[in-house]
Amino acid sequence: MKDINKTCLFISNGFNSSHIFLKGDPVERFFSSPLSLSRKRVLTRKKDKQEAWCSFSSLLEMVQIKEFRIVTPVTMEEYEIGISYTVMKMEQQNTNSQEGVEIVENRLFEDELLGKGQFTSKIYHLQSKIPSWLKTFAPPNALIVIEESWCAYPKSKTVIKCPFFNKCTLTIETVNIADNGSSENVHGLNKEQLAIRQVEYLDISSISKDYWSRIIGANNIDLTNFKSQKTGRGPLQNGWKDSCKPMVTTYKLVTMEAPIWGLGERLEDLLISGERALFLACHRLCFAWIDEWFGMTMDQITEMEREKNLMLQKTLKKPPTVLTNGKPEVKVISNGKPEAKRKDMQQEQGLASILA
Questions:
Q1: Helix, strand or coil for residue 119?
Q2: What order of strands is seen across the sheet that includes strand 40-45?
Q3: Between 156 and which of 174, 258, 296, 333 could a Cys-Cys bridge form, CB atoms 3.0 to 4.6 Å apart?
Q4: Number of neighbours of residue 146 by Cβ within 10 angstroms
Q5: Beta-bridge partners for 236
Q6: CA nearest to 227, candidates 216, 239, 240, 209
Q7: 302 near 80, Cβ under 8 Å?
Q8: To 10 degrees, the CA torsion angle through 106, 108, 114, 120?
Q9: Residues sharing a CB contact under 8 Å with residue 34, sequence separation 6 or more, in sequence order
Q10: Is the whole model's pTM more than 0.85, yes or no?
Q11: For residue 62, which of 40, 92, 32 has the smallest C-alpha distance?
Q12: Above 90 in pLDDT, residue 184?
């Protein structure tokens, strides 16, 4: 090469590798590249020096951090009731005898960070919603998602894992504030985290047409023409956030790590885009259903949740599941014998060991 002071950026992208030669400081190039940081290595070529991999271990350990901000035209008290009602109704609508939401645990908790609240553990059976590209190598039931959530309104923390890809972890930290989405760093991130954080504002009056938005199916609601009969709020037309009162902003910090060579970046994009679509759909429906839940109390919501959990257990005709070391296992029945295991268990374990 003519330029003796160049940087070779080695990019692991899918199962193919390519080399791109760039001028300038390697750290600067590393940060400026749009590709995922977790799969990059930088090699510096200099005159009279042997090629050597530069040590960017701290950079390689970085994960994707994205903050979504969603404004809803409700009060803080109304939001707690409305979002709880909406989640319940969405779970009911998306649960049938074959797939849906399974409630594993539901109890009170208390810790120093969040205080007192409600802990829930759920398993989402989403076989029919698995993307086609994932079906090419994964068994049909690969998209079984375990969700553990600690809710102490107005704050909460949720950890989502998929046992099939046991190295992948998605964490959602939520803070609700009565503002218009202009508060910065509500999650108390440090300088390094703020440097890689991406912020996206989600407008509930908008409609998305990506894969997950079509799967979740909340695009048939037009909030630009909707007006609440009970509250008189709406329609949400252009610039509605500039003059709307009341309003609550939900700040959702999504941290995603999928350290799987050749597949991790695509899994990260898949799961983050799925959460984005879910956030948008849930808040769109929360406002669209305001006349259904407006005026209810949290005691009524708690009773509805209890009834809903019983209904989901009856609707989802699957053997009860328990979590052992974070992995779902079929619960032992009364005669002491375990339920029959899935036919594709060996295939699932074999491929999972390769990806681990």
A1: strand
A2: 16-23, 6-13, 40-45, 52-53
A3: 174
A4: 20
A5: none
A6: 240
A7: no
A8: 0
A9: none
A10: no
A11: 40
A12: yes
Measured over the CA atoms of residue 165, residue 201, residue 182 and residue 233, the dihedral's sign is: negative
Q: What is the pLDDT of residues 55-109, one digit of tens each?
A: 333 333 448 999 999 999 999 999 999 999 999 999 999 898 888 999 999 999 9
Nearest-CA neighbor of 61 among 193, 171, 199? 193
Map residue 57 onto helix, strand or coil: helix
Which residues lie below 8 Å from residue 233, measured CB to CB, with a gap of 6+? Answer: 73, 227, 244, 287, 290
Q: How far apart are the C-alpha atoms of 65 and 185, rounded to whole Å?
A: 13
| Total number of residues shown for the chain | 356
Q: Burial, 307: exposed, middle or buried (Cβ in 10 Å; 0-12, 13-18, 19+)?
A: exposed
What residues have CB less than 8 Å from 324, skipping those under 6 apart?
A: none
| Alpha carbon distance 47, 27 (integer Å) | 19
Cα 355 to Cα 214, 263, 268, 343, 349, distances in angstroms: 29, 9, 15, 20, 10
Q: Taking the mean position of all CA atoms in its chain, how far away is CA 24?
A: 36
298-296-121 Cα angle (round to 5): 40
Which residue matches tokens 């708690």? 302
Interstrand relation of 155-162 and 165-177 (parallel, antiparallel or unpaired):
antiparallel
- Taking alpha carbons only, the member of 177, 178, 181 closest to residue 245 is 178
Neighbouring residues of 335: CB distance < 8 A, sequence distance ≥ 6: none
**C-alpha–C-alpha distance, residues 278 and 136, integer Å:** 25
Instruction: State which amino acid sits at residue 181.
Output: G
Six token digits for residue 155: 């704050």
Token readout for 83 is 């979002």
